[in-house]
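fyi for ur records
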Amino acid sequence: MSDTATGSWKLERDSDAIAWLTIDKPGSSANVLSGSVLSELDGLLAALEKDLPRGVVVISAKKSGFVAGADIKEFTGITDAAGGYELIRRGQQVLNRLAALPCPTVAAIHGFALGGGLELALACRYPPWRSPMSGCRSDCRRCCSASIRGSEGRCAAYAWPVFVRPWN
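which gave:
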């Protein structure tokens, strides 16, 4: 298995040429999508585009869950509409890059997947996978309201009913 590690992400390739992208934001009890986390992911996706694996699995190393969403501490730095747009657009570009990978991609979720964390999972080609014993929880209402505010809309009406049966 070959490894590449950045601050919050670890990329491993197994003997079957499957790439495992593991998020584990240091110093935080939950993974959040900050600008630096997204930049790291963007760099790893660029490396995957150059040396395409057979497939990509996105997972979390946190015991508490997958990804809690955007790092809301970064919202305090937004001083105008253009700054807010740029922050959102940068996230869209990275998630679009993941969605555009020509190999199969899937997110393996345990625990929560909220807001941008659910959008990260939905950027994968295949529906988010979860173990029946995982305690998987997601927040479609919040994600959909975020998508209305400027995100790509991955969790909009077409995605949610197809991928998750809320009565499970």
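The CA atoms of residues 66 and 96 lie 19 Å apart. thats all i got for now
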